[in-house]
Amino acid sequence: MRKWLFLLLLLPLIYVSACKPTRRLKPGENLLVSNSIIIDEKDEVNEADLEYVLKQKPNRKIFGFIPFHLFMYNLPDPEKVEKKAAEKKARLEERNVKKVKDIAEMDSIVTVLRISLPGKVGKDRRKTEKEIEKLLIKRNKKEEKVEKYKPTKGEWLRNTVGEAPVIIDSSKVITSTKNLNLYLFKKGYFNNVVRDSVAIDTLKKKARVFYFVKLNQPYIIDSFSYKVADPKLAKQIDFAKENTVIKPGDNLDYDKLDEERTRITTYLKDKGFYFFSKEYIYFDADSALNNRVKVTMSVKNLQQSDPSNPDSLIEVPHRRYLINNVFVNTDFDPRMANIDSLKNFYDTIEVEEHFFIYRDELKYKPATLLDAIYINKTYTYRAKEVEATYKKLSSLGVFKSVNIQFEINPDDPTQTSLNCYINLVPTKKQSISFEANGTNKSGNFGIMGNYTYKNKNTFKGAETYRFSITGGIETQQLLANEDESVLGENSSIKALNTFNTVEFGPEMSLFIPKILTPIQFDALRKLAKYQSPKTVFSATLNYQNRPDFRNWCSRASKFRWRSERTSRA
After folding, report:
1. Maximum distance among all alpha carbons in the chain?
2. Do residues 422 and 332 make contact, with C-beta atoms less than 8 angstroms apart?
3. 311 or 77, which is more confident?
4. DSSP string, 226-261
5. How many angstroms separate the CA atoms of 30 and 27, rounded?
6. Of 530, 533, 536, 523, the residue nearest 563 (C-alpha)
């Protein structure tokens, strides 16, 4: 209630202050208050798209007329804000001096130990490697404790909530005019004309900009064709022709041409052309009479160094790639990734032609991860399978991050196969959270609280166990008879007791990312891979004690199965 009252009192102040948004402007500065685009044929182009390319736009407004963000920027005194920020940064730097010094010392020790590694063998080498690992872990923990600078309230008001005044800039007006001209040119209006005009009120320090646009006749696509030198690539592109976004009779739109480049690139990457990019695609436009254009899409070959003359380049056809080995690192640590000596601490097992890399012990069942991986050995590289793998692994909820990389197989003389590296950063296995809040329902006050415990990967199959307790107390109006006596009571009792309502309830659930059945079938395994089924066991109990009734409500353990379809890559 107090917050709303504060806002109601603040709104008039904001409105009055917003009427003077130029009070902190320097002499010669003028606030940009509006941009107006006047088009001779409005039905031909979208005015909102034209506004998007303008280099300068007025300050944002709430309710369409109050520059709230500009007001918040002008509210604190800038000199006081800078002074407080400088003092706070100085205090922070003083507190961090020792931590930064310790980090620098550990970095120097690690450097010395790494230099000494080549001269050590056996136990001495392993001992040094372990020492490096411990130092790096300690160093990273120390770095995490280094305090980060948090803005002062004044900085927060000015830089986060607030917005600096937009001062009219003649050079940006010229750039906006050029942007409008270029945008219309890319939309097929090659002969468009754009001019600008600026109106300045020197007394109020406000400026308005007008852009006058004349479109003239657009250029139209007369025909569209493909020209590809590589027969294998031409055959693949031929299959994608029918879904082209470029149609005869449309304007010669550069955005549409780029969309076609992206579409063809995506299609080819999904057919095994891993290194293909849209930079290999270009268009030729041959203009004819009556502003009509013949468009041809061409594809360049791949360029690489000539084996017989490394200083020169030769053209070779684009290659299709097969998947060679798939490596799944279930304990990937990006902080340790570039330290080759630490690779000795990892073990590897092979399951269904996938290599699982782990430390100490494998924390996840291979079958669970394989159900989420669509990238398989000897298969053609497909971008859709990579995307589906990324989404499925991320949806398990037991990994902080998922990273998938490919490298050319160095053991392949044809250089047409790729090794896949799936790097998984585990999330914390256990977590606890608390939440508390107050309630106010028509003057009836209450307190609510929630405790939640989560255990991820409970049985090494990406399961999630969740236990929570929710409880609260609240004040409620008691039911009364006509003589104002409380129902069910003979004595005179006040119609309102403090915290006379209690509610309490624990809840348990177990999430399993597959169909749980006594016997596992191959058909169920395939369904789990492409349909993303989920099994959930849950049990809840709720107790309510109110002035007018007392209630226990419980639900026995419940088996629930639901399927969320994953499109097959």
Report:
1. 109
2. no
3. 77
4. EEESSHHHHHHHHHTGGG-S--TTSB--HHHHHHHH
5. 9
6. 533
Alpha-carbon span 181 to 188, nearest angstrom:
11
Tokens describing residue 118: 């080549």
Tokens at 244, concatenated: 């082209």
Number of helices (H) and strands (E), helices first, in the chain? Answer: 12, 19
Q: What is the DSSP string of 440-501?
A: EETTEEEEEEEEEEEEESTTSSS-EEEEEEEEEEE--BPPB-TTSPBTT-SS---SB-TT-E
Predicted local distance difference test score (pLDDT) of residue 491: 40
Using alpha carbons, select from 189, 163, 168, 166 the residue that is nearest to residue 50: 189
- Going by their DSSP bridges, the two strands 354-359 and 322-329 should be labelled as parallel
Which two three-digit tokens encode residue 332? 């990937």
DSSP alpha helices (H): ranges in 19-63? Answer: 47-52
What residues contact residue 456 under an 8 Å CB cut-off, 6+ apart?
Answer: 397, 398, 427, 428, 429, 430, 431, 462, 463, 464
Contact call for residues 512 and 461 (beta carbons, < 8 A): yes
- In angstroms, rounded to a whole number, what is the distance separating the alpha carbons of residues 299 and 282? 6
| Residue 187: strand, helix, or coil | coil
Structural tokens at position 553: 């409500």
300-405-534 Cα angle (round to 5): 120
Picking from 327, 330, 326, the residue whose alpha carbon sits closest to that of residue 399 is 330
Is residue 521 helix, strand or coil? coil
Tokens of 494: 């006040």
Under DSSP, is residue 96 helix (H, G, I), strand (E, B) or coil? helix
- Give all strands of the β-sheet with 322-329 in edge-to-edge order: 346-351, 354-359, 322-329, 417-426, 399-408
What is the 3-state composition of the chain as percent helix, strand, coil, each rounded to the nearest 5?
Answer: 35, 35, 35
Place of tokens 């399961």: 463
Helices (H), 187-217: none
Distance CA 296, CA 201 (A): 52
Query: For residue 478, what pLDDT is reported?
Result: 58
Rounded CA separation 84/80 (Å) = 6
Q: Give the integer Cα–Cα distance in Å for 261 and 300.
A: 13
CB-count burial class (<10 Å; 0-12, 13-18, 19+) for 357: buried
Residue 247 has what pLDDT? 92
- Is residue 396 classed exposed, middle or buried when 0-12, 13-18 and 19+ CB atoms within 10 A define those classes? buried
pTM for this model (two decimals): 0.68
Residue 448 has a pLDDT of 83
Q: Which residues contact 63 (CB under 8 A, 6 or more apart)?
A: none
* Residue 154 pLDDT exceeds 70: yes
| 305 Rama class: left (phi>0) / alpha (psi -120 to 50) / beta | beta
pLDDT tens digits for 349-389? 999 999 999 988 899 999 899 989 999 999 999 999 999 99
